[in-house]
Every structure is written in C-alpha cells, then in structure tokens.
Task: structure prediction
Amino acid sequence: MSGKSKLLKVVLLGDGGVGKSSLMNRFVSNKFDAQSFHTIGVEFLNKDVCVDNETYTMQIWDTAGQERFKSLRTPFYRGADCCLLTFAVDDMQSFKNLSMWKKEFLYYADIQDGNNFPFVILGNKVDVENRAVNEEMVRDWCNLNGRCPYYETSAKDSTNVDTAFKAAVERLKELEELMDERPQHGHTVDLRKKPKQSGGCCN
Result:
C-alpha cells in the first residue's frame, strides 16, 4: 500500500438541527456533545480512512443549514468529490427538503449529471423514540434519485457513523469504475460537437 493518500472533499448538507456537526465530530474524533450549537457558515475537519487498501484523506465540510447562511455555504460546493445529504428521522420536513438540498448543491457545484455524482443519504437520530420518517419512504426517494446508498445513523450512540462516511468513498470509487467502463461513449459525443463549433467559426 502506498503511503500517499488521496484528498477527497466531502460536503455535509441538510437542514439546521439534523446533526451534521455531531456526525462529523463523532466520525473524526469519536466525540458527542449534546449541547452543540448550530454551525455558523462553514467549518471542516480531516480524517484519513482506508478503503480497499487505499488511503484517503476525507476533508469534511460541515455547512450551516439555515437559509440566512446560504451565501456563505454555496461557494464551498465547488470541487466536492461527494456529498452526504442528511435529515433527521424524527423530522419529516428535513426529509422533504432533501430534494431542495440536492438541487442547490448540483447548481452551485456546477454538476450536470446528478445521477452520476456520489450522493449518500444519512437518516440521523435513529436513537430517538418518536420517529416520523420510515425507511421505505427514504428507499423510494433514493431509487428515484440515482439509487444513492442510504444509511441510518446516530451521532449520539455512534450507530453506522463510520460505515456511512466510508460509504461515500466507496460510492465515489464505484461510480468512477462505471465511468471508466464506458469512456468511448463519451468521446463520440465530444467529437460530434467539435466540428460544429469549428464550422461556426470559419463561416
């Protein structure tokens, strides 16, 4: 295994209060603070992970979910390698807002094909008693949105946190391999476009 790690920019998105900061802190430092406050703007932490005998440095960007921080968070979407869309299983509105978050991310990250971008969905706070969002609803949403992986997590008791973050790397690798299997298709489209452009310039 080489000693060099690959840097991956990972963006955590979702409504304020769903536990994005708690998930990041649990994953990176294995700590949970029940008194943690809402993120203001953007903050990030790094953690090295090993997937398939390769080392990756995950640079995790935790973004503020409130609307008033939109102008602070959106510049950080560009250059992201994967995105963790997060909701809380006891908050139906945070689940309904996943589509809005996905749309915002794709627009500001300037990504044309959302189905070929590595999104992973996190349903956080599975430790709570009053659950509002059932797993089947989320699976249906995921199937309609590029079949993205779904993990139910709890930052409080550490359920699935490591697994979910590593899944973002696995999803990235999986989609890259799929793209590598069909490179000739992309080239034929590009070649058709180029003569048109050059023809327009010459006329």
Notes: The CA atoms of residues 151 and 163 lie 8 Å apart. The chain has one domain: 6-202. DSSP finds seven helices and six strands in the chain.
